[in-house]
Prior knowledge:
By secondary structure, this protein is mostly helical. It is built from 4 helices and no strands.
Amino acid sequence: MSPQTLPQQVITILLCAIATMCTRFLPFLLFGGKKEVPPIILYLGKALPSAVFAMLVVYCLKSVSVTSFPFGIPELIGITVTVVMHLWKKNTLLSMFAGTLVYMLLVQLVF
Length: 111
């Protein structure tokens, strides 16, 4: 594949910036001010975060082999640390960081 020319790179960056701005500003344009938010949007706001995290967990664990070494042990420990931290501290970022850190240390230094 040939490298992009400067105008192609500028157009690509501009399109990405426009698309990002649209996704950021569109909700405020549609639901800003005194407009009532439709019930389906409120439902999606409550249901989607959990669904996205569930899909992320499934995606991350899809290639884990429990029949060969290390038998999914680092993943299980990492998930356990994440869940325990979240139940203890109720901080999503802290629990994800702690679980990821423990998993990476296990994979790099132990298994």
